[in-house]
Amino acid sequence: MEGCLFGQLRALEENSVSATTASNLTIQNLNKSYKVAGGDVEALQGINLDIREGEFVSIVGSSGCGKSTLLRIISGLENGYSGEVKIGGKRIGGPGLDRGMVFQEHRLIPWLTVEQNVAFGLNGLENGERDTVVREHLELVELTGFAKALPHQLSGGMSQRVAIARALVNNPQLLLLDEPFGALDAMTRIQLQQEILRIWEAERTTMVLVTHDIDEAIFLGDRVVIMSSRPGTIKKIVPVHLPRPRDRSSYDFVQIRKEIFTEFFADVERPFAYEI
Ligand code: ADP
Ligand code: MG
Prior knowledge:
The protein is α/β, with parallel strands linked by helices. It has helices at 5-19, 67-75, 114-120, 127-140, 156-168, 186-203, 214-220, 251-265, and strands at 23-36, 39-52, 56-60, 82-87, 90-91, 99-102, 174-178, 206-210, 223-228, 233-239. The longest helix has 18 residues, at 186-203. Mean pLDDT is 89; it is low at 11-22. Magnesium ion (MG) binds at residues 67-68.
């Protein structure tokens, strides 16, 4: 595969990534451990990652390999690590409006309406402007007709759309998505993947998506970061040079899926058969 045009393009990209100067998010030699029952759990070890402004990066890895810890550190919710995490060259000092986060559960406030939930984290605007920004973001996630609805009146997919609108309302530079579609049924998940792609193309917000769904990672990402566990490290970064929207059954898509699967099961002594 490396001999074909696709392989050459990929080699070019790998070189250009390391040569990038205007990096939005820079992670250098990041280590994080937790004290558990008197011992240390090494959640992350020697993580190095540069994410360009406007890039869409997917992160895959088995449960417990430190994906959520990594996103929490980037969001500023987690301290006590060693190494550097910088946005636009500045060290992260805590949570900030330049970063939005979406979790697997929507975390909406149950007694607030959809529009109140979206407006909740919105800072520093007059009432009129506030209403406009909320309306625009409800349009962005195609929920205009549900502004007055309460969270319990929404489906899982709609709730996640509200969570996405809420995370984008302050116009963050960086959107962090921690398995945002993990609790949704397969059809809704595919729909929301298309939605997030449309939003990314419209807003050009840098996106970091953690997922355990390899197809989702390839469908969305400019690159797929593969992590391994105990301690959590980056095993490989696979660039995805396919035009969007991507065809999950195309030859190149299937080749990338195979490469990621192989990487996942490389350490298994007796690999079991798997369907791809
Ligand atoms: P993932 O999101 O990939 O499933 P996590 O980042 O949640 O992984 O966890 C990575 C490792 O760190 C796991 O072994 C987990 O048990 C441990 N860990 C995560 N959060 C804490 C915490 N608050 N206290 C102690 N250990 C934690
Ligand atoms: Mg997690």
